[in-house]
# Entry
Amino acid sequence: FFAWHPGAGEAELAGWLKERKVNITESRARYLTRSYGKPHLTLSDYGFLLRKHPLHLWCAGELIRDPDMSWEKALGKSAMPRRVSSEWLFHPKMRRQQNMRLRTRIEKDAFVEITSVWQRLGFPFKKLVPSYATSIGSSCDQPAALAKLIGIIINDGFYLPPISIRKIRMAENTPYHTIFEVSPESGERVMNPSVAKTLRTVLQAVVEKGTARRANRVFKEPDDTPVPVGGKTGTGDNRFKKFDRKGEVINSTAVNRTATFAFYIGDRYFGVITAFVSGSEAKEYTFTSALPVTILKLMSPALNAHLGALDELEIVPREEPKTIGPLVVIEPTST
# Structure
């Protein structure tokens, strides 16, 4: 009220509250006026007390007076409120707050630049959340996006749209014989080849020595030669937590639980396996990323058969990545 009505007294405050069906005593009105109707309090002070931006507070008051106010009119009347709300930026005693806001602004601008880089590598969302978690590489993602990133890594930094069928032949040996073929798409280099090579080595170490050891040496060529396997595991126990003033957890509500293994097998297979439980039932589960790794291990006999079959296909060398893409072999199943 006092932010919208500078210089108002006890009677005006009581009348304003009465219009909104709030009745207060004279002593209460006097107390509120003495506490919050002080002449030296500015729009910025009221914004601080209400935990609102001063300009939000000013705009709300103006719209109450004139609900049909245009943007141009509001901008023209806001010169003084804008100056008052920005005074703290130049106050010599508020250096710490100024530096904090500057760091926040710089971080937001940096994350805008980082987002464009991540999107080239498969990040599926329009914005990155500027947070400590994101800065160390942990952010919301999708299984398909993780698979896309793994495909880029094993393709020496080139991104090529995945295809599952190269050719469809219809009505063979008839006048209606038709063949549909996928038009080749040019690739795009989105990662330095040296970076991709280093990442493959790191991912392979996760399987050989790290959290995905269960998948080590389970994929082999027909001559029993081990096929290099790499990947990255991740487990998410996602919860809403409430803390008290001392920083101790007073309530924890399970939202979901996830366990993911993004992997590559040799230089032709890659993918993602994810276990997911949604809702409050997630608190009943304790599985980790060992679960999807085990699932991949159980699939190894079927995948090993494909590893041998792929040797019979004509594959364009990696030096010409613009003509190849991730290949999925589809075989008929018996019913």
About this structure: Residues 312-335 have pLDDT under 50 and may be disordered.
